[in-house]
Amino acid sequence: MIRDLIDKDRPVGDVPLLIRVLLLVALAMQVAWHSMQDPVMAKAEDLPHPMTPRAYTMSSFGEPIATAKILNLWLQAFDNQPGLSIPLHSLDYGIVSEWLDTILELDPRGHYPMLVAARVYGSVSNREKQREMMEYIFYKFNETPDKHWRWLAHAVITAKHELRDMELALKYADALAEKATGANVPYWAKDMKIIVLEDMGEVEAAKVLVGGLIASGEITDPYELNFLENKIRVLEEKLSKSQQGVDN
After folding, report:
1. What is the pLDDT of residues 124-150, one digit of tens each?
2. What pLDDT is attached to residue 176?
3. How many CB atoms lie within 10 A of CB 159?
4. Neighbours of 109 (CB within 10 A)
5. pTM
6. Rounded to whole angstroms, how far apart are CA atoms 176 and 153?
7. Does residue 28 sit within a domain?
């Protein structure tokens, strides 16, 4: 008797035709509605402007260095957003520079922002963006030459080998020679101007520069003196060969 009270599954044929039609119509409408919707796509967010260093310091309860390290990581990871990867060269480098300035102000002794400027943002496959970042490095170098000399040396190499702009490379190398005068600056960085002049074919100018450095008596490091003396011999040989070519 209990078994008789239990409703058994009814075959589809027992469902009224009108109900079946309505179900099919509803299904078709749902499929059509979904097909008309725009596909869900990840949307890139623009890099926002940073707050002031003071605001970051206050919000971190007086821990600017720790905040600088967190901002370093956040900025470098900004190009990887959920669902997409943003090409670095599509970022607004003016705003990127603001972030680098902010981080450097929070941690004045830190070098990481300059490292990122030189080797991440300055290594993109976009010549204009590379130039923009090299100029940023040049600007920061002029603020504190003996601190940021290594990054301007990197800019010399970038200008010479990647941008293939020898005039720009000479501009940076000249600044290194003139302004990076601290004891912590190695002679190879100060002497980059000689190499650039030589590569530009300005052999006579390079020879005069080397001779002036030796004659000044300011160079006392035996390794640097040895380098300069060898370099002047190489330059004299080049000048001699060049003159022979003209005479012939």
Report:
1. 989 999 999 999 999 999 999 999 999
2. 95
3. 24
4. 8
5. 0.72
6. 7
7. no
pLDDT at 240 over 90: no
Find the length of the chain: 248
Domain count within the chain: 1
Residue 161 lies in a domain: yes
CA distance 155 to 160: 8
Rounded to an integer, the average pLDDT of 1-6 is: 43
Positive or negative torsion for Cα 56, 60, 61, 65: negative
Contact between residue 172 and residue 142 where contact means Cβ atoms under 8 Å apart: no
- Answer with the residue of higher pLDDT: 144 or 210: 144
Both tokens assigned to 202: 């300005």
- 242: Cβ–Cβ under 8 A, 6 or more apart, which residues? 203
DSSP H or E stretch at residue 85? strand 84-85
| Nearest partner of 233 among 213, 214, 207, 197, judged by Cα | 207
225 is a domain residue: no
Please compute Rg for the chain using Cα positions: 33
Expressed as residue numbers, the domain containing 147 is 47-167
CB atoms within 10 A of CB 242: 13
- For the stretch 157-205, pLDDT in tens is 999 999 999 999 999 999 999 999 898 888 888 889 988 998 888 888 8
pLDDT, tens only, 83-93: 445 578 788 99
CB 221 within 8 A of CB 229: no
For the four alpha carbons of 113, 119, 123 and 127, in that order, the dihedral sign comes to: positive
Residue 41 lies in a domain: no
What whole-number distance in Å separates Cα of residue 98 and Cα of residue 107?
A: 14
